[in-house]
Amino acid sequence: MQPEFSLASTWSSTQLCDLLNACFTGYTVPVSFSEPVFTRRFSAEGVCLADSGVWLSRGEPVAVGLVARRGWGARLAAFAVAEPWRGKGVARPCLNKLFGSIREQGARTLCLEVLVNNVPAIRLYQSLGFQITQRLVGFTAPQGNGLSGESLLSETCDPRQLLAAVCAEGLADLPWMLAPETLCGLPCQAWVLGHCTAVVSELGGVPQLRFIYTAPEFRRQGEACAMLSALAMHYPHLTSAVSVPEHFSALFLRAGYRLLPVIQYEMSTH
């Protein structure tokens, strides 16, 4: 019996959250969302429920795919197949439906992220026309003294100022999760230290570094490293999103941060 498709827009946010959590059960990396986190996160990422889908069989979840849109670009923000249906060939037709529909709606490029050790998924995406563009990593901050860090971080700014600066510099190829458009939709704090700005989100009560930016004329002067050290002292359990392009690793390691064990590939079509 073929799974039945329905648009994600016909489901409530609570239902979609429950369905996605059910499909991620038994996944390589534990994934579970509360409804508030689900709604805030995927709204900030630009998920369009009219372009996203849910598949059921006899009322039980088979797969969920969430698609985000920005201009001519689209991103597979989440895709999960329920454990009883994995390895049975349902992913390809589900993805073909999503990608075919989004292209009909004017999307010219598609992107996604996938764990580097998820070989079957990588091969599937490659067969659908995706290519690996870069490795994305994450970091955890060294343990520090909260009082010392707090004295260094006192100035804040509107995250929209960061969006303006990044756009003015022409940084258009940032990973979707790092794009300032995403940050502006999240509950976050944008800290300023010298000529460096860092954005930390505490969505779900867990501090996560989402972006760090130094004005071009002040780079390679240690300001970003100083900001990372101040953040580590201010947020004792700070991590970064696993969305940092690998070539920035030296900066984080210099500030005493450690690599997280989870690594992703960014993949895209052209």
From TrEMBL:
Keywords from the UniProt entry: Acyltransferase, Transferase
Domain of life, source organism: Bacteria
All residue ranges annotated as the N-acetyltransferase domain in the record: 3-154
Entry keyword annotation includes Acyltransferase: yes
InterPro entries: Acyl_CoA_acyltransferase, GNAT_dom, YpeA/RimI_acetyltransf
The UniProt record lists the keyword Transferase: yes
Molecular function, one GO term: acyltransferase activity, transferring groups other than amino-acyl groups
Signal peptide region: none
Protein name: N-acetyltransferase domain-containing protein
Organism of this sequence: Mangrovibacter phragmitis
